Amino acid sequence: MPRDTTMQGDVEAPASASCSYGVGFQELTSANEVEDMEFYERVGKAEGLARLLSSSVESGLNPDPGSTGPDSVAEHRRVFGANTYREAPPKNFFALVWEVVQDPILILLILAALVSTVLGSAIPEERKNKHWIEGVAIWVAVIVVTLVGAGNDYSKDLQFRKLNALKDKIKIKVIRGGDLTLVDNTDIVVGDVVFLDTGDKVVADGLVIRSEDLTLDEASLTGESEPVKKDTRSAPWVKSGTKVTQGSGHVLVTAVGEHSEWGRTLALVAEAGDEETPLQAKLEVLAVAIGKIGFAVAVCCFIAQLIKWCVVNRGFPIKKINDNGPIQFFLYAITIIVVAVPEGLPLAVTISLAYSMKKMLKDNNFVRVLSACETMGGATAICSDKTGTLTENRMTVVEGWFGGRKYDTAPSSTDLHPVLLQELVMNCALNSKATFEIKPDGKMEFTGNGTECALLLLLHRNFDVDYKAVRHQHEKNMVKMYGFSSAKKMASVLIRLSDRLRLYNKGAAEWVLARCTKLQTESGAVEMTPLVRESLLGVVTAMAKRGLRCICLAHADFPLEDPNRAADFFESSDNVDANLTCVGLVGIKDPVRPEVPAAVATCKRAGITVRMVTGDNIHTAQHIARECGILYELIPTASGAGGVTELRAMEGPAFREMIKDPAFVELRRLMNEGDKAALQQLRDKINHVRVLARSSPEDKLQLVRLLKEMGDVVAVTGDGTNDAPALKESDVGLAMGMTGTEVAKEAADIIILDDNFSSIVKSVLWGRAVFANIRKFLQFQLTVNLVALVTAFVGAVAGGHEPLNILQLLWVNLIMDTMGALALATEDPHPALLLQRPNGRTEYLINWRMCKHIAVQGSYQILFMFLCLYLLPTGPKGLEQYKVHTRPYYYNLNCAEKARDALPGRVNITTANLDSAADFSCNVLTSCGLPYTTNITTSPCVLADPWVAAGMRMPSDRGEAVCMGPFGFNTTNCDLNDWVQAVESRLDDDFKTYEEDEYKRPLSVLFNIFICTQVANEINSRRINDEYGIFSGFFNNWIFLAVIAITMGLQAIIINFLGIFFRVVSLNWQEWLVSLAIGAGAWPLSLLTRFISRNLPCCAAFEAQLPPEIDDPALLSASHASPSAAGDLSEKAINSGVAPAVSPQAAANGLSKGQQVAGGAGGVGNGHANGGLAYLKPMDLESGNIKKL
What we know:
alpha+beta, 48% helix, elongated, copper, ATP binding, transmembrane helix, transmembrane, metal-binding
């Protein structure tokens, strides 16, 4: 341990020996741990402790990063530690290897390899025949599989660690050098002054300096659900890991990192990437089912081979169990299971999710919950905030109403009466938590709420007022601040003036005006009559209809002392936000983001319903919604039975009344019980509501629940603390990264880093890409499984030779699982995915279209496998070099030579009679039908004439034919039969090696063709919706190209240099050419399949996958425009992940530069006609082959 550290409990702590502060590390940490109130009073509360720490409650620490003095951040970090936590070390690579080796299938393979190696090297005859080579080769394969598996796990762990490390990195507001600034939470040190606001997460322990109703949720530490109010008197200690649920305040940091409460009590870092997503769970179920089928096939193959071996060997000869015997059969069965068990399915999901998460981060989507990647692809409804998401959050005051006058532009200080100007300045500067800084390049950097920033900008640009000076002047006179409430839509601050208490209030105009009783004019305050209020509400409505956010500024006065006033009167904002005097109205413009209308149009084409849920005035919300394309007139045929011709907006109170209506509640109950009619009735009531204005967080939560009950997959955006329940309730919660509170971010699944709606559309695209990529891999893998299992089963059961040996199957497994997953799971999304229907909740992983391609490509491969396995070995005309000769042929050709090797040493065999004994034995074996009679030799059977001469018929049993009748009377000690058996045994043993060598060339061709067809089908699998462009984007995917190159390169090495291990022979260029040609034949076959599917009415109807219904006339009319007018799916659009605002038909034009949809009779989808236009099938997107169904 370094000398400058000491140990405190189990935590390594900085030493206090060199401490240059009035309080040491040990003393401060101990007091913080036990919340020592005696220490708190003794040091002079937060103010006194700040002085002891060379800090200041007003100005904080020295912001200069190069400073090393007592007031510097660096010195405080050296003495009191950094705000970081010990990370759990990543798993050791060898530990991951050990985990992989625990796989039961791999253990069986290891045991079988061990037995094969031991027997092959221990038994002399086995060693002579080099049967140990197979065992060693399997060991090598096991090592490769283990290392690849461990490497995948290690890479996955590393990837998720990098991504998850960003989860705990947040921006914190601190005061340094007297200015409020944003720093990373890891940069916080003891002595910092931190500003906490509603929704913030507390990242370090501290003491309250000033509390404005600061209330914390400490459930994560104490388990108590009741929030705790903090103040400077009885509850000054603030603990890390808690969250601000209400109010605001300033806190002096007293402990950070592992020395804080959160660091001491919680193990923050869990293993990265351990969570299992729903898609992974589905695939594991599928993998188990496929594995069971593979296990059944393996058992059947083992039993069939074992029975055949026992019959051929007339029993169970122990010495032959490793000579193409039970050991090999067991290994073969295990290998079939290894190939059949698709462990690559979960791996493909992991690779795809990790790859997508990394890419989504570049698209400003930070994924906090892994399953959100895939779930977002199935989203059918998006409930979006307005401010900052659909709009730019670049708010500016553009209109106003002050002192009885309407200003069409923001007024200057000279335009206003001095009294009005003073009231506006005080309200805008003090009733605000926002700040801004002017950078050296002149740019302004804002922190805080957009509305408050707009009011500060009004002070700066129009009134030439320094808001900081105003705050500094009145800061000590601030009595209480009442934060913004979603329920009341307003915020206030209470200031002590020389002769009274004044409350400055601002909020939603109609809500504040409802609480006003007076109106401030240039001549003084006048009564707010109903007529005046109605006039002002007219001004508000006019502004709102122009898309402006209307804010009312007001104030109220209270006496300094009032004996009749309750002691806790000022604790509740309800007591003070009454009898207000209206000072003025401001209209704040927040422009719609330029890219949002196109993004909303993309959602509509993708079958996703976009709803705006906002707290704004309904007129403002409607104006913005129309600009975005959320509200529009429906085409007549899409208006439904209710006759609604336009989508509509609804206010929160009306929505609450509707869902509480007894008739609605009854319909909802019936729907949840499965009543489809009730579901349709609810859809008629809800589907046309696209804007929810003046809504509360509870309204948003209820809307999400209702949509989910109706079967929608709902994505919700949120930025406030009160949005957390809706974010949690939704299928995918989307928090705003720039304006969202930490509470909202922690409740969310994905954080939209740029608060931009178009980024949400990109997350939909990536989510669909994940699902599509898994389907691609599934189609590829199931084709391999089908071919491997069918050929293995037929080869083992129906006779013939095993089509693929153990090592070849293991190589196929490596291609299929690891390399296939890497290639197909990393395909970038194609914008055409956004022209398909959402997957929703009920979409199957395998559809009929995939089954068709699996069956066609599988049959094509099986055909050539069987041709190579059964036809090629017969040596057809022109292919005689592949002929595999039969056992009788081998007996006749080699019997004389083998007999002279086998007979010496046998009973009564001498040099003199060796040749005659050999001739006799071979004649019996090849000419007497015992066991063969060949047509190669013309020699008559030597046994026939003696039996005829004896007047008897020659027995069919060889022992009797050779030893009985004219040859003797004893089959037990018969030299002749012993000679014949010895020669036959030698021929049988040598024939196995001969047959293996004979089969090597045709089986090498089979193996090469099989790999080539798999590689070709891997390319086919890139497009699974019957698109023609299987090579579209092929050369832009370097990962896919690398996988193909590595696969074919390793295959060439195996064929040409590793034949002794894989039991193959080198192929000549003609054989390679044929293999590649047959492999490439999978492409025209696939295109033919797609052509038939798309053009035969029966196939098209069977596989019909209608695109989303379009009810927006603007989108439909775009289909009649030329491609140049309507736009196309450009490279920019592909890179951004958002298709331009064009129709599917125009999009198809852009993709294929092909045909355009002609008008005509409407297609039908979901019970509605589609405006007289034919539906576009997703499979038509690339081809331009667009036609009516």
